Amino acid sequence: MSYRLKAITREEHLAFVTARPSVSHMQVPSWGDVKPDWQAQCLGWFDDSDRLVGAGLVLLRPLPKLKRYLAYLPEGPVIDWAAADLERWLEPMLAYLKGQGAFSVKMGPPVVARRWSAEAVKAAIADPQARKLRDVEATVQEPLAFDIADRLRRMGWQQTEPGSEDGFAAGQPRYVFQVPFAGRSLEEIQRDFNQQWRRNIKKAEKAGVKVVQGGYEDLPTFYGLYVETAERDRFIPRPLAYFQRMWTTLQAEDADRMRLYLACHEGEVLAAATMLTVGEHVWYSYGASTSRKREVQPNNAIQWRMMCDAHELGAAVYDFRGITDTLEEDNHLLGLLRFKAGTGGQAVEYLGEWDYPLNKVLHKALDLYMSRR
C-alpha cells in the first residue's frame, strides 16, 4: 500500500487525534499556536481509499536570511509505527517537507523501548556501581522498539544521542516517569505509593493544605513560584507570556486540555502545577513551589489532587514527564527522580529523537551551531 501525504485542516487533524486513546499534547493542532517562532502545519497520511490514516503536527523553524527550514515533529508523527512498511509512511513525509524547503527533519517516535519498575529504580539509585539508568537492566524490554530503531538507521535516520545535561537535553525527554492508571482504582494506585508519600499526603491534609483549580488570572501567581523554582533548580525559566499563550490556545481547543492547580495554606500559595490532557493520557507539565513551609508537604498534596482528577477524567496513564538518567548521588536532579519513583510507577525510555539531513551541509552547520550554544 502506498500513502499520500498532504496538508490537512486543523479540524481534520483534531478529529483524528480525538479518535485515538493516546496522542502527545505536542501533536494536537493548538500546540503550533504555543510556538509562535515556528510555522506550524497539520499533515495527513491518506491510504489508497483516500482515508485519513495518520497525522502529524510539524513545526518549521526558518534559518536566518534563508528560505530553508528545520522541520520538527515533537513526539510524533501519529502513524502506525509497528507497520512492516514503515518506509512507505516516512518517505512521503520527507519528500513533502523537502518540497516545503526543509533542510533537516527531526521527529520523536512515540515508541517505548524499556521500562523500569519503581523497585528497580530504587535499587539502581542505591547501587554505587550504577551511574546511568540506561545501563541498568530493565524490568521490561520492548523488542519491537529495537527493530524500529534498526529500520530507521537503515533508512538514513540518525538517532540523537542522550544529552550530557542529565537526560534533559534540547528537545523532548527520552526518559520519563509514568504511573499506570488503566483498570485500577484510586485506592490501588495509592497502595503502591511508598510510605513517605502516603505519610506526606496525610500530613498535608492534617495541616490544612487546600488544593484548588486556578484560572488565567492565577498564572502570575504560578509564575512567581516558577521563577523561584528555576533559580533553586538551576534552569532558565520561560516568560510569563509563554504560559498565558499556552493557556489561551490549549483551552480554546478543549476546556480540559490544560488545567492549573494551586496548593494553598493559611491564605498563601505554596505550590502550583499545570496539567495537560489528551484522550487517556494526562501529563504533569510544569511545577513550581516555594521553599517556605515545606513541612506541610504542598507538593505531595497537589500531585495527589491532580492524580485524583486525572483518574476521574478516565486517564490510563499519569505522566510525570522528564527524569534524569544520571544516578550519581551528587546530581541535583536525583531528588526529583526519588520523588517521582515514590509513586510506585515506572521509569520509561522512549526511542528518543531522530534526525534526517535533507541537506547535509546545512544540517552539519546547524549541529555545529547548537553544540556551541
Automatic annotation (TrEMBL):
Database matches in Gene3D superfamilies: 3.40.630.30
Sections of the chain in a coiled coil: none
Keywords: Acyltransferase, Cell shape, Cell wall biogenesis/degradation, Peptidoglycan synthesis, Transferase
UniProt-listed InterPro entries: Acyl_CoA_acyltransferase (IPR016181), FEMABX (IPR003447), PG_Glycine_Bridge_Synth (IPR050644)
Alphabetized Pfam families for the sequence: FemAB (PF02388)
Domain of life: Bacteria
GO biological process terms held by the UniProt record: cell wall organization; peptidoglycan biosynthetic process; regulation of cell shape
PROSITE patterns: FEMABX
GO molecular function annotation: aminoacyltransferase activity
Record carries keyword Ligase: no
Record family assignment: Belongs to the FemABX family.
Full protein name: Methicillin resistance protein
Highest classification ranks of the organism: Bacteria, Bacillati, Actinomycetota, Actinomycetes, Kitasatosporales
